[in-house]
Design goal:
It contains one helix and 28 strands. By secondary structure, the protein is mainly beta. It has one domain: Methylamine Dehydrogenase, Chain H, CATH 2.130.10. The strands form seven sheets. Strands 1-28-27-26 form a four-stranded antiparallel sheet, with no helix packed on it. Strands 2-3-4-5 form a four-stranded antiparallel sheet, with no helix packed on it. The protein has a four-stranded antiparallel sheet with strand order 6-7-8-9, with no helix packed on it. It is globular, with a radius of gyration of 21 Å. The mean pLDDT is 88.
């Protein structure tokens, strides 16, 4: 009898302990763990789909219901930049090249004499209209690959967006330039902080994420069609914004502090760090499909809610 009790107690002690569940999230939000990828470096959305990449070039895709993994590249494609077009083509920065998933295989596009940034941003309006930014230049998709052209500045560029007929680029020293197809126009952002990301919803609704006055702060700017204005009210004082994105009526800023939502005149913390639990932290990127808001963190987790 005593032996049976001891064996039962030992079995209980050896049973695997399930990981702790995160505290309850606000209504509508759920958490899931990505499979087949670790250490996400970028998250993008287009149409009903979303894509996440790792530093080595592994890519997972979300079809609106489940996540799956694209075939692995034959060689490491280190980098942080990612884009996807509505027709299902995926583009990665891969060292000094761009690689494209065309739906059946990975295709490599060399970039000659390219001086870029490992954190540079892509914009892909279609498989035939793709842009990538570097030092004073823009790489543009052509019928034979990618060609480069001047962007009207010598400064390093790390942000790009397309809205309507206009191409927007941003980068070092508060630089934002608008290209209408024939002429570059320099915008007065009234800041000298590095522009890291551009999010364009319409010609009169463009957002920029920039560095802050110190390493642990960020600046967010908004273009209303005539003027760039700061939109920092309500942002956490200690903790930079790592990701900015979403939809025109559901814009979010993400970082180690959690997730904040723009309410029209201030940022309101919607999910704080404590609500994510010990295994979910350092939110990193935000995007919106036509049905979901998705937020990634540096550990391979995804926050999700319906739009």
């Amino acid at each position: 009898m005593i032996r049976s009790i001891l064996l039962a107690a030992l079995a209980v002690d050896l049973a695997p302990v399930p990981p702790p569940l995160p505290p309850a999230l606000p209504t509508g939000w759920s958490l899931q763990k990505l499979t087949g990828i670790s250490g996400p470096e970028a998250l993008v959305c287009t149409g009903a789909r979303a894509y996440v990449r790792s530093w080595s070039g592994d890519v997972s895709q979300f079809d609106g219901a489940t996540w799956s993994t694209l075939p692995r590249l034959a060689e490491s494609a280190y980098g942080r930049s990612l884009a996807a077009s509505p027709d299902g083509h995926v583009f990665l920065e891969a060292g000094s090249n761009i690689v494209e998933w065309d739906g059946a295989a990975w295709v490599t596009h060399p970039l000659d004499r390219w001086d870029g940034d490992l954190d540079g941003q892509f914009a892909a309006e279609a498989a035939s209209e793709v842009y990538y930014v570097g030092r004073g230049r823009v790489a543009r998709r052509t019928a034979s690959g990618f060609a480069t052209f001047g962007a009207g500045t010598w400064r390093s560029l790390s942000a790009v967006a397309v809205v309507g007929p206009d191409l927007w680029v941003g980068g070092q020293g508060g630089t934002v330039l608008q290209f209408n197809g024939s002429t570059w126009t320099r915008q007065d952002t009234r800041t000298d902080r590095w522009i890291r990301r551009l999010i364009a919803f319409s010609p009169t609704d463009v957002w920029a994420l920039a560095d802050g006055a110190t390493y642990n702060q960020s600046t967010i700017l908004h273009w209303d069609g005539s003027t760039w204005r700061p939109r920092d009210r309500g942002l956490p004082a200690n903790g930079p914004v790592e990701g900015l994105g979403g939809a025109p009526d559901k814009l979010y800023a993400a970082g180690d502090f959690g997730l904040a939502r723009w309410s029209g005149d201030t940022w309101t913390l919607e999910i704080d760090k404590a609500a994510l639990g010990p295994d979910y932290h350092a939110l990193d990127d935000v995007c919106a499909t036509d049905r979901h808001i998705l937020v990634s963190d540096k550990s391979g987790n995804i926050l999700q809610r319906a739009r």
